[in-house]
Amino acid sequence: MKTPNISIIMPLYNAGRYLRETLDSVKMQTFTDYELICVNDHSDDDTQEILDLYKNKDSRIKCFMNQERRGAAYSRNMGMIRAVGDYIIFLDGDDIFDEIMLEMAYETIVSKDADMVYFDFMPFQSEKIPIKAKVSHDERFKKAYCCNCFCLTDMKLCDFTYFNTAPWNKLYRTEFIRENRIMFQDLPCCNDVYFVLMSFFLAKKMIVLDVDRVMAYYRKHDETTKIGNNENPMCLFYALDQVRQELVERDLFHLYYEYFYVESFWTLFSIYKTTKNISQKKEFYTFIREEGIKKFRKNQEEYFSRISPYMQSQWNQWMNYESENLWTETNSPYLFKLYCFEKEIKELLENLECNNRKTALWGVGECGTALKIFCDENEIKIDVLLDINDEKQGKVIGGTKVKSPQYGLEGVEIIIVTGKGIYDDVVNLTQKKRVLEIIDFRNTIGI
User: Fold this and answer.
1) 197 and 190 in contact (C-beta within 8 Å)?
2) Helix or strand or coil: residue 424?
3) What gap in Å lies between CA 167 and CA 182, rounded to an integer?
4) Can you give the pTM of this predicted structure?
5) pLDDT value of residue 129
6) DSSP string spanning 183-202?
């Protein structure tokens, strides 16, 4: 019997509610030379019945049952042990692949002889079937990451925050995973962080899939549809600390320390901000401040001292603030990204003469908010904030109130468009206004 090219590994626990949609997205793949390894983690719903129905109609589906509940990490590891494909990919039991995903990822990883192919993903609400979405990368990103293979040290530090730590939007070369002994960590949550980060650190050849559409859709659950709820922020620290220890043991920390400290800060800070349980949040912060940061710097103080002054200030501000304040609310990886392009942004804004002409910033999402903060910190004048979203209008950012374009364009000479994919719409909406320049900020800077 011919060995399949790709092994799809799917850990499942009480996934019956959405499992049919997920399995159908695999059946609809234009690439058909795969095996689907389903590891049922001792579910007590109709997961197994659904698997049996599909397995009986498709010999490519292989099902295994854990005799007791062991968790997603154990199930994925067991799936990897059983996999016979040349390449491995992971899929959760409630997510969906685009029908050309396997074909495109396989063609790319083979033609480029890569260890890993990364592709774009998008969240969708739990009860809705996702509508096919487009995606685009600016020319700088395409040239750096989509045309030829790269390794981690080829990557700009700020771009590292773009690459997520989920396993289901990456196709891996099986031999690369086995040669480097990369396994999933046995944790209640964040058990994929170690696996994914170590694969980034160890891969010699990675590439981003260059297509204009989203390849993977992951389901965002509200509390009523959540399959499991073991979200303990401490698990993220344990995962990151295991990565640190592994890099030290493999004598690689000196190569990747800056990437490690950047990733650690932004992921820990993000999970801190999003943790809803107040007591859990306080305990987590106290641990990071009093013990966690010391562990991260233990015997690596010289490396921590070498990271950029900006990232050192980020760690110091977080470790020394006393209560919720504006900094924790507005600080974001996007602001860090702007400072990585500080020279280019300042040159652009100075050439536009923003301080001499009435300037509007259009779009106050993550990028727009970060750019306003950046401008305030660098004494660059932004006169007006605009957004077509009714919910954002009236919001105050850096002392400036967000207005509707209908009322905020009077006398504006420069518009800096920060929203992704809205530049043409802004141009059309302002045709009758005497705006001298409209700048597509993301494409101009390449972020």
Assistant:
1) no
2) helix
3) 12
4) 0.90
5) 67
6) -----SS-TTHHHHHHHHHH
What's the chain's average pLDDT?
A: 92
pLDDT score recorded for residue 226: 45
pLDDT (0 to 100) of residue 324: 60
Question: What is the secondary structure of 243-290 as a DSSP string?
Answer: HHHHHHHTT-HHHHHHHHHHHHHHHHHHHHHH---HHHHHHHHHHIII
Instruction: Let me know if 192 is exposed, middle or buried by CB neighbors in 10 A (0-12, 13-18, 19+).
Output: buried
Distance CA 197, CA 243 (A): 7
**What is the CA 219 to chain-centroid distance, rounded?**
14
In this structure, the number of other CB atoms found within 10 A of the CB of residue 335 comes to 19
Beta bridge mates, 207: 117
Structure tokens at 362: 């259009």
Written as one letter, the residue type at 150 is F
DSSP 8-state assignment for residue 2: P
* 303 half-sphere exposure, CB direction, 13 A CA radius: 18
Are the CB atoms for 93 and 15 separated by under 8 Å?
yes
pLDDT given for residue 227 in this prediction: 42
- Beta-carbon-side half-sphere exposure of residue 95 (alpha carbons within 13 Å): 23
- Give the pLDDT score at 66: 96
Q: Which residues of the chain carry a pLDDT beneath 70?
A: 1, 126, 129, 222-230, 322-326
Q: Which helix (H) or strand (E) holds 36?
A: strand 34-40
DSSP string, 18-44: HHHHHHHHHHT-S---EEEEEEE-S-S
Read off the pLDDT of residues 139-158 as tens digits, 9 standing for 90 and up: 899 999 999 999 999 999 99
Question: 156 vs 104, 198, 206, 301, 425, CA distance in Å?
Answer: 25, 18, 14, 23, 31
End-to-end Cα, the chain, rounded Å: 48
pLDDT in the model for residue 126: 66
